[in-house]
């Protein structure tokens, strides 16, 4: 993780009084992280294919009744409609990511490259929202979605209600703007001399160059929309549109425990896989967020 | 200025607009049935005289304090330790981040099962094997909030670890070398080089954590619904109840505005108090 060296130098690492506690510490930390990070996941996998009584009576035993119920997963998927709700979650996440992407790239382009005179005002207005706690706007945002000003449309029970509000994300705009700031200005001048208009500069120069940061924005918005509970609970009251996060607590009330746990496992599987595949981009994106906030 | 259209549209409708509307609504009576009426400070008076608000405020502060006590030092120490590791450096952060990836609803439903108060519950059987418990966890007004804190800390620690790790990668190696040449041992190198480097990020994360934990909602809603005996009723849960159970949007926004004011004052005091040490 660190560059050339950390607080410990190579000489320190060879000293017994440093090395022994360090190695012990390493083992303790690794065990701790495996138990805390991977433990619940693995237990959930086991419980998802166990009979209910096994999980309730002796949660730590290894299949005490000797029964492995693979069918729990299929039951949760079909009768618990987990598959259907996961589909909704995927649609919501994809739309949110797309909306965020459109907003933050165009905004970043205006603020970093086009730089109109009123850009500073807009930039300050966007930055200011970072300091306003979300809670202030929860209720009015709900009323806004109930009746959008000017057009008077009711967005509740449409996916627009969950796609659009998260796109007003100041953090994404600032991260992307900062990335655009790092593109050498000579590129834009060269493109303009070659006769490219601002739309063409955007689509064939800025966007291709910023693929890494756009990947980060997409991943972070997919995950945050996947995790969201309160907002979809409020604006998607029609069960046919609800994401898995809203459906799970309701399923938990009416379903037997083994099917319930199988449902939890299925709902957890996709974000975990997504994370493991794109792990590098994720961790870089989160680290980046610390840099921006600081 | 075609390019500014998307951002202006979403910010006007879904960010700036609702913020202003929230401020205005806190002085109005809105229940979606009767016409909107100006009521001056009536909403604030109602909220401030509601005995539930005092209890919820205390609970929220209690949660924030507990969450700071458990949740703040652990990621710092973990990140400082991990930054010293060589090789396989992806493994530890990945493990630490897995709980963050877990959707809160999944985590809460799973932990609710772990907190089963019967002796054969998950945590009770682990603690029972060393002779402790059984504990009531979420079923007792005394241990319900600490139980929620435990889950919330588990869910949030990984994020902080990654942010600290990223900050630690930028410590210049020659600072450690200079300290070492001056005869500073490992402990003093950590104390005088590593920690001061983290100072800015630490202060910021502290503030963000306070602001974040004061807005606790999903956990108490799904774990306990505010109980037992109102011991996990938080301000946000109360706002939710005002608005979406009672339909009193004016009281809900008034309480939101009050909470936001408290957060603003906390941030301002924090900034003033730490101005001296936040600069490197």
From TrEMBL, chain A:
The chain crosses the membrane at residues 20-45, 90-111, 118-139, 159-180, 201-226, 259-278. It is a multi-pass membrane protein. One of its GO terms (biological process) is transmembrane transport. It comes from the Bacteria. PROSITE patterns: ABC_TM1 (PS50928). Residues 86-278 form the ABC transmembrane type-1 domain. It is found in: Cell membrane. One of its GO terms (cellular component) is plasma membrane. Keywords: Cell membrane, Membrane, Sugar transport, Transmembrane, Transmembrane helix, Transport. Gene3D superfamilies: MetI-like. Belongs to the binding-protein-dependent transport system permease family. This is Multiple sugar transport system permease protein.
Automatic annotation (TrEMBL), chain B:
It is a multi-pass membrane protein. It comes from the Bacteria. It is found in: Cell membrane. Signal peptide: none annotated. GO terms for cellular component: plasma membrane. It holds the Pfam family BPD_transp_1. GO terms for biological process: transmembrane transport. The chain crosses the membrane at residues 61-82, 94-115, 150-170, 190-208, 220-243, 249-273. InterPro entries: ABC_transporter_permease, MetI-like, MetI-like_sf. Residues 57-270 form the ABC transmembrane type-1 domain. Keywords: Cell membrane, Membrane, Sugar transport, Transmembrane, Transmembrane helix, Transport. Its main location: membrane. Belongs to the binding-protein-dependent transport system permease family. This is Multiple sugar transport system permease protein. It comes from Kribbella kalugense.
